[in-house]
Specification:
The chain has 477 residues and is α+β, with helices and mostly antiparallel strands. The chain has one domain: FAD/NAD(P)-binding domain. It is built from 13 helices and 22 strands. The longest helix is centred in the C-terminal third of the chain and has 22 residues. The structure holds flavin-adenine dinucleotide. The site of flavin-adenine dinucleotide has 42 residues, from helix 1 and strand 19.
Length: 477
């Protein structure tokens, strides 16, 4: 059997689903085929239990620069606008209090400066001192004896934003909604693993699964780490290698935190700092993580991707040099070692306690367990020419009617933004049209909203906290 489509998307995770939706709704492309290896949509990294369920806007992610935060804010808003337009509140999208917490004088000062710098982009941000935190998030303040933690702490955060998404459910909704578009045929094929892709001599490409053959004028491979695997097989992306970094979680047996609590990111570390989140799939109990462990396989909790790992790693002197650059830094080395121990039964949980207590000083061993079956793999990409790890997502647009996307965090947040980027390439290549006006009306926000309060007032508040801290220091020492 052969099936022909204008566009074939390989992979039905959140990236593939977002692209199908945008192509069906905002372009005049007539037929889209989505080919998925497993039995359902979003069974790997986009599944709700695989990732941290966070909309990474850039407001509390302290490793984002202001320009990067402006970009992520735009794409994050698209997720929000999509969900609200379809009334998915409290079904797919959720609102929690969220904050970045600074512990100790250096981190406190860092956060206060960041608050001043980022307030214009995120006017809803508030700065919370220890007294306010006692009310909003008491477990970050008190130790097991009910005493206040001795360090200075401050947080920047918000109480009234959309913060959390079940990306697995969102992926399903995107494909359902794409199928409802009247002028586009959208077919989903599950249990069909794309084994090979060949360029046709005349036009487009042919894809083979075990039992089916597909042809397409344009292909987008949104297959996670396997995107690079398929690119390499076709001779593309030879300058990249893939380093799969698994992330696991620890889950508490009750709700410890009222909202998301993020830590200050060590700028040297390429992976997200430990955070605590209310898990929307575990009755709001707190999920701590993710950890970061290099795994010699491309998919978590699935068999048979060890060989694919070696094929996409393409171990050579450039890859070794990139890894060496990471490992020779003692902070990164320690971090990797600690994260390895976090995965070891019995010891892992005990080691983890030390790190998690930076967020919840009173945390006890009996309050949390290793979250079995949770977590996924981030397909981090190594740029072999530059001998370094690329920190975010990577996309290989060949300019020949085929694109390959590798999407580690925050790939779920940026799914609709990435899809828009690919949509533009597709319509240009195929000579189709894009209803950008409708896209902007429905999925993008206007310019930044007005400041909630004058900057001068915000500055006064920050200075007050600084003064109070210094007064406390004098008293304390
Ligand atoms: C621990 C962890 C925490 C994270 N937290 C966040 C977060 O809080 N916020 C955020 O925005 N992002 C987060 N991410 C990142 C986010 O989960 C990913 O960026 C996102 O899920 C990637 O979606 P995707 O569709 O590109 O890939 P995937 O969800 O991996 O989907 C790829 C699909 O391709 C299919 N496939 C693969 N090979 C083939 C083939 N040959 N033929 C057919 N189909 C194939 C797979 O079966 C799969 O369904 C996190 C990731 C991890 C691991």
């Amino acid at each position: 059997m052969s099936h022909h489509y204008d566009v074939v998307i390989v992979g039905a995770g959140i990236s593939g689903a977002a692209l199908a939706y945008e192509l069906a709704r905002y372009t005049n492309i007539e037929s889209i085929g989505i080919i998925e290896k497993y039995e359902d949509i979003a069974t790997l990294n986009s599944k709700g239990t695989s990732n941290s369920q966070t909309i990474h806007v850039g407001d509390i992610e302290t490793n984002y620069t202001l320009p990067k935060a402006a970009i992520t804010k735009r794409t994050a808003k698209m997720v929000e606008k999509y969900c609200l337009a379809h009334s998915y509140e409290n079904e797919i999208i959720f609102s929690h209090q969220k904050m970045a917490l600074g512990v100790g004088d250096d981190e406190v000062e860092f956060l206060l400066q960041r608050y001043e710098e980022f307030s214009e982009l995120f006017p809803y941000l508030e700065v919370w001192d220890k007294e306010t935190l006692k009310i909003l998030e008491p477990r970050v303040v008190y130790d097991a004896n009910g005493n206040e933690r001795p360090e200075n702490i401050v947080a920047i955060g918000t109480k009234d934003q959309w913060t959390t998404v079940d990306y697995g459910k969102m992926a399903k909704s995107l494909i359902d909604n794409a199928k409802k578009e009247p002028n586009t045929r959208v077919d989903l094929f599950v249990n069909e693993q794309v084994l090979t892709i060949e360029k046709n001599t005349t036009r487009g490409y042919t894809l083979h699964t075990k039992e089916k053959t597909f042809t397409a004028d344009f292909i987008v491979v949104n297959a996670g780490a396997h995107s690079l695997f398929l690119a390499h097989a076709m001779g593309y992306g030879q300058e990249y290698a893939c380093l799969p970094m698994a992330g696991s979680f620890y889950l508490t047996t009750q709700k410890l935190l009222n909202g998301k609590v993020y830590m200050i990111q060590n700028p040297k570390l390429p992976f997200a700092a430990l955070h605590g989140d209310p898990d929307i799939l575990a009755e709001g109990n707190t999920r701590f993580g993710p950890t970061a462990l290099m795994l010699p396989k491309l998919e978590r909790y699935k068999n048979g991707t060890y060989l694919d790992f070696w094929k996409t790693l393409r171990l050579d002197s450039n890859v070794v040099s990139a890894l060496w650059k990471l490992l020779k830094d003692s902070e990164i080395r320690n971090y990797i070692l600690r994260n390895f121990i976090f995965e070891v039964p019995f010891f892992g949980k005990r080691f983890f306690l030390h790190d998690a207590r930076k967020i919840v000083p009173s945390l006890q061993l009996h309050e949390y367990e290793y979250a079995q079956g949770f977590g996924g793999v981030r397909p981090q990409v190594i740029d072999k020419k530059q001998r370094k790890l690329i920190l975010g997502e990577a996309s290989i647009n060949t300019g020949e009617g085929i694109i390959f996307n590798m999407t580690p965090s925050p790939g779920a947040t940026s799914c609709l933004g990435n899809a828009q980027r690919d949509l533009k390439s597709i319509v240009n290549y195929l000579g189709k049209t894009f209803d950008e006006q409708r896209f902007n009306d429905e999925l993008t926000d206007g310019e930044y909203c007005a400041l909630k309060e004058p900057i001068e007032l915000q500055k006064q508040r920050v200075n007050k906290i600084r003064e109070a801290m210094h007064a406390h220091e004098k008293e304390y020492y």
